[in-house]
Structure formats: C-alpha cells, structure tokens
Amino acid sequence: MTTQKVTPLSLSKQALIEYTRSWQGERFADGRPRVPDDILERMKRVTITQAWGVMRGEAYHHQYEGDWQCTHPRQVLVGRALTAAYMPRRPAIRRLMEKKGAENGCVGDQISWPIDRLVAGDVYVADMYRKINEGPIIGDNLATAIYANSGNGVVFDGSVRDLEGLEQMPDFTCFVRGWHPSYASPTIMLMGINCPIRIGQATVMPGDVVLGKREGVVFIPPHLAEQVVTTSEIIRLRDDFGKTRLREGTYKPGQIDTRWTDTIEQDFAQWLQDHSDELPVPPQTIQDYLQNRTW
C-alpha cells in the first residue's frame, strides 16, 4: 500500500487539503479529512431527510443520490469516503496507469488498488458510470478484502457480481445499480483514487461522510458532519418531548405541530434538564442546546 500519487487524476496531499479547506479537523497522512469516529457513530441515527435539509440550508444542493439496489436494505451504511474514478478502457492510457501503479508499489489488477488503501471506517465509493454488463469491479472475494480493511460496505455507481455471496456477508452493505455475472477489468481503467467524482447527481470528495439508508445515499462534506448530527439529535429530542406531551394531554396537536410558543419552549428546556440522563443523545448536546437557544 502507498500514500503517494498513483494516477494523474489523484489529488496530491497539498491539493486535497486545499480543496477541502473548510475542514479544520484531523486528517489522514494523505490529506483526506478524518471525521471523528464518534460523529460517525451518531450519524447512524440521522435520517436522509434531516441530512439533506442541513446541507440544502448551507447551499449544498447536489449531495443526494437515489435509485439504488441494496444488498442489505434494512441496514445503515456510514463511513468516510475513499473515492475511485473508472473510465472505459483506452489501451495506451491503461498501460501508462499500470506502469505508474507498479512504480508506486501497487499490486495486482487496477481494481484492487483502491481496496489496498482502505482503512477502518472508510466507505469505498466508485464512479463506474452506471456500467452493468462487464461492470462489476468486485465479487464476494474482493468484498471480503474490502470488509477486512474498512469494516464497511461500498457505494458503486455500477454493478457487482456474486450476489448470493455478498448477501451472506451480514455487515457488508452495498449500494449499487445492479448485479451481473460478468467481470469488468478488461473493459475499464482506473483513472483516479481519492479524487473528486460524480455519483449520479451528486459530487463526492474524498473524506465526505457517506450515509446510506433505504431512501438513498447522501454525501456529507466533513465540515458539516457535526452540524448534521447535532441538528438531527435536537429534532429527535423535540419529537420525543412533543409526543410525550400529546400522550399526556398537556397540549393539543395544533400547539405542537406548529411553531412553539415561548411557554412550550420553556417547558421543553425544563423537560431536557429533568430527563438528561435518560435521553438517547450525548449530554453535551443538551447543554449546547440550552446555552444556544434563542427564545
């Protein structure tokens, strides 16, 4: 495995830092943003709609993509994007890519190079230009290697093979366009690792937080990840409070299903304090909300 530039379209460390300058936190050795593990864990409870709403509010309008086939549709996929860009094969370019890969210590066929760079918490996100026939870049063998390195599944704008084998891997959640028994390698070439890619209508950068659920997949810029999870947690708290008060008969539906009055907001703040040890969100989230509320 190497952290050097593998292909002409891979971003150097300096370029990757430059193009993700909004992220001020920790990075991997190659410059890729490293959103903390605790944010990833909290992200699992965020809904697609909540994440989409926060990003739209920050003028990120092209971070969602739907219309997927999923190997494990009831599961959640969360992790940091390691991106790869594939294109239809041109023999001269592919030969150059293979030469450069060998010079940088890459082993085996090009489709294995991104897998060798995966680390725990990554999600392998590949632009395969929706190629189905002769489109699979993994089957159950390479999927095993992906899971061993990352502990995660994949998002492929293309296809996979060996579906029965993939379905038998209980935590390997794949979002793909389909499945096919063919093999992609002879017809494609790897043009970039950890470079900007397009997945359907979404732009994806290395280090984006991937959130995949039944509704689809969102790619969250690293600097918005904490805002997304915190917003989601506050929404859940308000929903829990509202439903509790409705069951108790304290308020009418028309009072809860609208902008709350100052009296209800004060009741909510007191409810948070009274139940701070019982709520399924970090205590700091509650304290931050109470300190930053504007009513």
Walkthrough of the structure:
The model is unreliable at 1-6 (pLDDT under 50). The chain is of the alpha/beta class. Strands 1, 2, 3, 4, 5, 6, 7, 8, 11 and 12 form a ten-stranded mixed sheet that branches. Strand 4, helix 6 and strand 5 form a beta-alpha-beta unit. It has eleven helices and twelve strands. The chain is elongated, with a radius of gyration of 22 Å. The protein has helices at 13-19, 37-43, 48-57, 91-103, 113-116, 140-150, 163-167, 225-248, 253-256, 262-274, 283-292; strands at 64-65, 69-70, 77-88, 122-131, 154-160, 174-176, 178-179, 188-193, 197-199, 202-204, 209-213, 216-220. It has two domains: 13-34 and 66-220, 3-Layer(bba) Sandwich (Glucose Oxidase, domain 1), CATH 3.50.30; 226-292, no CATH class.
Rg over CA atoms, rounded to whole Å, is 22 Å
Q: Give the biggest sheet.
A: 10 strands, mixed
Can you write the helix and strand succession as a string?
A: HHHEEEHHEHEHEEEEEEEHHHH
- The total tally of domains equals 2
Indicate the proportion of strand residues: 15-25%
N-C termini distance: 53 Å
| Name given to the CATH homologous superfamily of the largest domain | Ribonuclease E inhibitor RraA/RraA-like
SSE class = alpha/beta
User: Under the CATH scheme, which class of the largest domain?
Assistant: Alpha Beta
Q: Fill in the CATH topology of the largest domain.
A: Glucose Oxidase, domain 1
Number of strands: 12
CATH architecture of the largest domain: 3-Layer(bba) Sandwich
Report low-confidence residues grouped into runs of 5 or more: 1-6
Helix count equals 11
On the 0 to 100 scale, the average pLDDT is: 92
